[in-house]
Amino acid sequence: MTATKRTYPSDDRDQELWLLLEQTRNAIYKARELELEQYGVSTVQAGVMFVIHTMGGKTRPADIARWLVREPHSISGLLSRMEADGLLKREPDPERRNAVSISLTDYGRSICLKTFQRESVKQILSGLSEEERKQLMSSLIHLRDRALKDRRMRSRPPFPALD
Length: 163
Known about the structure:
Order of helices and strands: HHEHHEEHHH
CATH architecture of the largest domain: Orthogonal Bundle
Low-confidence stretches: none
Number of helices: 7
Structural class: mainly alpha
Mean pLDDT: 87
Strand order of the largest sheet: 1-3-2
């Protein structure tokens, strides 16, 4: 049997790059999901807990949405599910009327700290040299910020920042 060259419907290099980004994101996401199964949380839930932890243990839903580049209504539903699971709690925000503040419960904090291990991500990224890591970080931040600008987002996520 001889190998045949595959032909694709387009020479669109942007589409090829987009597909490669999507494949890479999905592969890393699946590896991380498998790792998080042992704690009973999803990658998105781990992301929410990371944001709350990073913001000093308390934050607003709008800040979580901004950090995760998600729509506020999708974060609201996610927070409700996480609250029902005992991972976080909502309280009236003392600084803003008609707003809530989100914080982790003791149980949520313990799960959050366990999710910081990220062995799957460390193993995947270990194949990159320090210089390749810096270049990838720089390129991804540049693309993210460009995409957000094109979406007319009011502000970009604060993390990660380019040093």
